[in-house]
Amino acid sequence: MTDFSTWMLTCQTHMENVLADSLPAAGIAPSRLHDAMRYAVLGGGKRVRPLLAFAAGEATGADRSRVQYAAAAVELIHAYSLIHDDMPAMDDDALRRGKPTVHVEFDEATALLTGDALQSLAFEMLSTEPLADDAASQLAMVQLLAQAAGSRGMAGGQAIDLDSVNTALDLPELEFMHIHKTGALIRASVLLGARCGTLADQDAVALDHYAKCIGLAFQVVDDVLDAEASTATLGKTAGKDAAQNKPTYVSLLGVTRARELAQELCTDAHAALEPLGPRADRLRQLADFVVERSF
Ligand code: GRG
Question: Of 69, 170, 183, 252, which is the most buried if we count CB atoms within 10 A?
Fold first, then answer.
């Protein structure tokens, strides 16, 4: 088995190439919009969601030529969410992935349209590329991503987040918000990657539980890094949660307990994968990566 860093780099490079080929070429009219789409998506980000899709695909024997489009579709939705989240009406941030945010580099109207167009491209890709053996299975994949991105998923979580500024959420309320805002797309990454292969019902349950644990762990670590890491390391403005008086795992639990919680969630994620045996090893490595990451 290739070591994890090599595997990760190979997947990230592959993802970059698929995304670069799938996005409208720079300079093609309307060129400002297409330039902004490429600016937002290419050359940055950890690609955690595509990595999860590739790893889940490996666990179900999926062909990478299928998984690459499921992975890319999720990454396009993620990129759109970051663009809109950074806009003045939401988080109002000027730095993302170490460069100016889309509305700063271009303008607000272009940023809105860029997010819209990336979301559409994601669904075009998921419904066009051959990802499943039959049309009904592929339709179910489209529905899965639509639900994950929509008001009962990521967009709903974002709405709760916006409402929560200056309020005192308790732990279950915070968890509910993050299961939607961050967790829904992470769950979709795992399940879509897995569905590109042969997914037994009991494995779907196990992967669903794994994804829930990883989604929450990802967010707990995100909160810790926001409190502890530098803007230069993160490539986005650090310390924003406290500055905006947002409820976070760090504000509720403190850094030490938040780190412990992330580790507990990682242990739960490993336990969830037990029935899958060695074919889930990449997912295990990714669970560790999510919790141990420093950016
Ligand atoms: C605008 C509908 C809508 C939703 C926005 C994803 C999101 C919801 C907001 C982003 C704000 C944020 C800091 C969320 C917490 C976790 C998160 C998604 C962090 C960014 O994801 P990474 O670390 O980013 O995977 P990279 O740049 O590596 O892809």
Answer: 183
